[in-house]
Amino acid sequence: MHAKQEALLCAAYALEKKGFDLRLLDVTGLSSLTDFVLIVSGRSDRQVQAIAESIETGLKKDHELRPLAVEGQQEGRWILLDYGDVMVHVFQEPVRQYYDLEGLWRQAPEVSIPDAEPETGRTGRA
């Protein structure tokens, strides 16, 4: 599976749990660690955990993909799912603002996420 397809699947699973303010960044050529970074917000620790679990379970069950690493699952403030070519960051909004990953990757082109409605997530520019 192509990394972009995998990243878009992650976004779809996040949207199923009402993740919002989704941003998918193409960091190919900017990072040696990954090709795509998906950033998602949740409103509470439980929602952040549910979003991360939806992504992990969906990719495992439907596509036989497992993360290389998962960090922050217990706390639910910032969960990182590392799939190698795709890294997913699920944040509570204040933590997301504090770490400002969008600012860190501001040179990265944003990829449009199908089905991300304006009130639940930002769509990007392809």
Summarize this structure briefly.
The protein is α+β, with helices and mostly antiparallel strands and 126 residues long. Helices cover 35% and strands 25% of the residues. A hairpin with a 6-residue loop joins strand 3 and strand 4.
Defining traits:
globular; alpha+beta; 126 residues; 25% strand
Report the sheet-strand fraction: 15-25%
Strand-pairing-aware structural class: alpha+beta
Number of helices: 4
Strands, total number: 6
Order of helices and strands: HEEHEEEHHE
Largest sheet: 6 strands, mixed
Tell me what the CATH architecture is: 2-Layer Sandwich
* Major sheet strand order: 3-4-5-2-1-6
Q: How would you portray this structure in words?
A:
It contains 4 helices and 6 strands, in the order H-E-E-H-E-E-E-H-H-E. The longest helix has 19 residues, at 45-63. By secondary structure, it is of the alpha+beta class. It is globular, with a radius of gyration of 13 Å. It has one domain (3-111): Beta Polymerase, domain 2. Helix 1 crosses helix 2 (45-63). It has a 6-stranded mixed β-sheet. The model is unreliable at 118-126 (pLDDT under 50).
